[in-house]
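Technical annex, item 7. During the second reporting period the consortium partners agreed on a shared format for inverse folding records so that results from different sites could be compared directly. Each record opens with the tokenized structure and is followed by the designed sequence. A conforming record, contributed by the partner at site C, is shown below for reference.
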């Protein structure tokens, strides 16, 4: 009878450990989890997976990426990093050009500069910059991005 008591106690301990561990482990999610904060832009929302990911998988937080893009390309307005129905990306508005230097900087940005800036922060780009004219020589751009694969 004492052996049966020990066996039952051991079984309860193992079941308790299994039950507690299964509640603590987050469910695996494939793809992107989208969080829709109350003050979010209607175009984009912050990706929950990117905000909650450990530093080992996300070397640069989205807010920092936005700051780096704004610093490298001050000609851009409304710079955002987030996710929508098309996936995750960096979006911005390019106002009408003011001078030749503006046009040169815009061309450098569109011909790979923006992609290189984002790749330096640990993301990979998924194609070229997409442009949509939203006004007279006013463009909204989007560059699709994803986390870079660890090496």
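Designed sequence (site C submission):
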């Amino acid at each position: 009878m004492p052996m049966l008591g020990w066996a039952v106690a051991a079984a309860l301990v193992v079941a308790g450990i299994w039950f507690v561990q299964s509640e603590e482990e987050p469910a695996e999610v494939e793809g992107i989890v989208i969080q829709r904060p109350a003050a979010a832009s209607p175009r984009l929302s912050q990706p929950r997976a990117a905000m909650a990911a450990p530093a080992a998988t996300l070397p640069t937080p989205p807010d920092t990426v936005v700051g780096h893009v704004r610093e490298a390309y001050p000609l851009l307005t409304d710079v955002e990093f987030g996710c929508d129905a098309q996936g995750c990306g960096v979006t911005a508005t390019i106002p009408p050009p003011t001078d030749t230097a503006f046009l040169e900087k815009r061309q450098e940005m569109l011909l790979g500069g923006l992609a290189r800036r984002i790749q330096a922060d640990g993301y990979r780009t998924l194609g070229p910059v997409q442009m949509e004219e939203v006004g007279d020589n006013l463009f909204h751009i989007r560059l699709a991005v994803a986390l870079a694969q660890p090496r």
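Strands lie at 77-84, 87-94, 123-125, 130-135, 138-147. The first helix runs from residue 2 to 24. All partners now use this format for quarterly exchanges.
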